[in-house]
Amino acid sequence: MSSLREKMFRKEDPLVYQDKDSHLIRSLTTKDFLALGVGTIVSTSIFTLPGVVAAQHAGPAVALSFLAAAIVAGMVAFAYAEMAAAMPFAGSAYSWINVVFGEFWGWIAGWALLAEYFIAVAFVASGLSANFQGLISPLGLNLPKTLSTASTGSNGGLMDLVAIVVILLVTTLLSRGASQTARVENTLVVLKVIAILVFIFVGATALHMKNYTPFIPKYHVNADGSAFGGWQGIYAGVSEIFLAYIGFDSIAANSAEAKNPQKTMPRGILGSLFIAVFLFVAVALVLVGMFRYSDYANNAEPVGWALRQSGHGAVATVVQAVAVVGMFTALIGMMLAGSRLLYSFGRDGLLPKWLGKLENNLPNRALIVLTIIGIVLGAFFPFTFLAQLISAGTLIAFMFVSIGVYALRPREGKDIPMPSFKMPFYPVLPALGFLGALGIFWGLDIQAKTYALGWFIFGMIVYFAYGMNHSTSTADKKKQTNKDS
Q1: Membrane-spanning residues where (predicted)?
Q2: What is the rounded distance in angstroms from the CA atom of residue 71 to the CA atom of residue 45?
Q3: Distance between CA atoms of 356 and 384, rounded to whole angstroms?
Q4: Average pLDDT in the chain
Q5: Residue 481's pLDDT is what?
Q6: CA dihedral defined by 470, 475, 477, 482, rounded to 10 degrees?
Q7: Cβ–Cβ < 8 Å for 242, 73
Q8: Per-domain residue ranges for the chain?
């Protein structure tokens, strides 16, 4: 029992990670991380969530739901920024928690994040496919049912060909290196932000002040049992909206490839989140001002619909095209981060070590595995499959990182370098970040929590059956024991 406890709580030496990741090329700048973060966070959700949440939960106060979700995300982002500055290792939360709490806890945090990346890749690819097909359909271009929908759908589909193709395109791009990927990402993100700003300015010319009253509708219970109106409705909207903000963790996963990570990581993480919050709140306020919030009920494309109803059909077409581009940038961010996390597991022996091998100083083996799993999920399962598990897994990692700051601080300036950025209002803010993430996790539906529990149990089986016995820290310990004897 003592041997098992020793293995589970053995903390990795940060110098070991620094050495293992030294072959990764540090080429990413603050500009690259800002683009990566904005590209991942400001995805298709900015074109759908404001209208959906306004109609289902919050009314015009949807802007307050976005702000509340942003406050929680911001508190966690401060913790991420300090961790990334102090320990710029591949794998983000997994590697950090391994150093400050021990291997077992790092595995839990990393395994939770892995669910996010696997499913997010599949969902973003499926969503991109649906929007792309909607964009070309008016031109008379339609794929056959067998190639346009997932095999587990109800419309006679066999596979989602567009989802497969787009995942393979991103894989090809990422296999050429982070710096080349960053150039493409930077260009696409600039185009996306410009299009969103165009919507904000065009939509602002069609506002009707009566649509903002009452700003917080009277509370009642929807037919499905969920809350609408009042502070209860705003809170219900927060749990649904928080999914939109989780992309900043994808920045941290690539910190081993950052130039001057002491400065670039905090700036990239916090800067991208600030830009995203501004865009989300602005889009939400314009959208509910253009038409009554109830008009967006069961509307899959509220932004495009509002523009067309206001006589701006051409702008609506551009926005829908940008939505496709936006999902492409999000797919780049998720696949980049997911491949680095898988590489970290292989690097430490918790998953087969060949995943941690580099090819031309790039973790392309891990990328290939992520691609295969993403294709299987994205092409053969409908995108509603396990939707909220993305939020559930990420929130678990967020809780670990928030309380991890308490274990990090006493070691800064000792075996861990003193970071140039520190989480403000310590020791209060880490606790608030933890409680905020826990509160949002608690607000997820029972199905999401059940799936998260199932994924957690599967992760425990993998760890105790394979990872614990094959980890490099266990192997190093055995070598040291043999040497001492």
Answers
A1: 33-54, 61-81, 93-110, 156-175, 187-209, 229-248, 269-293, 313-343, 364-383, 389-408, 424-444, 450-469
A2: 18
A3: 32
A4: 84
A5: 44
A6: 130
A7: yes
A8: 22-478
Q: Which residues contact 59 (CB under 8 A, 6 or more apart)?
A: 214, 215, 216, 217, 228, 229, 233, 288, 293
Q: What pLDDT, in 10s, does the model give residues 445-478?
A: 777 788 888 888 999 999 999 988 888 875 555 4
Distance, in Å, from the CA atom of 8 to the CA atom of 79, rounded to the nearest integer, reads 24
Give the tens place of pLDDT for each residue, 164-204: 888 899 999 888 877 777 788 888 888 888 889 999 999 99
Q: Which residues of 418-428 are buried (b: 16+ CB within 10 A; e: fewer)?
A: ebebbbeeeee
Residue 431 is inside which H or E element, if any?
Answer: helix 428-443
Gap between the Cα atoms of 471 and 229, Å rounded? 51
CA separation (Å) from 346 to 131, 251, 334, 335, 339?
35, 20, 18, 16, 11
* Contact predicate 11/100, CB 8 Å: yes
Predicted local confidence at residue 441, as pLDDT: 86
Cα 75 to Cα 51, 344, 483, distances in angstroms: 26, 26, 46
Report whether 275 contacts 283 (CB < 8 A).
Answer: no
Q: Taking the model in full, what pTM does it have?
A: 0.86
Give the number of other Cβ atoms within 10 Å of residue 357's Cβ: 14
**What's the distance, Cα to Cα, between the start and end of the chain in Å?**
22
Q: How many residues does the chain have?
A: 485
Mean pLDDT calculated for residue range 214-222: 91
Closest-CA residue to 45 (of 61, 26, 66, 22): 66
- Fold assignment, 22-478: Amino acid/polyamine transporter I (1.20.1740)
What token pair was written down for 18? Answer: 């620094």
5 is written with which tokens? 């406890």
Encoding tokens for residue 427? 């020791």
Cβ atoms of 174 and 121 closer than 8 Å: no
Reduce the DSSP state of residue 52 to 3 states and report it.
helix
Q: What is the pLDDT of residues 431-446, one digit of tens each?
A: 999 999 998 888 777 7
Would you state the structure tokens that stand for residue 41, as one six-digit string? 């966070």
Single-letter amino acid code for the residue at 442: W
Degrees to nearest 5, angle at CA 231 with 225 and 234: 70
Question: What confidence tier does 323 reach under pLDDT thresholds 50, 70, 90?
Answer: confident
Mean pLDDT on 317-322: 83
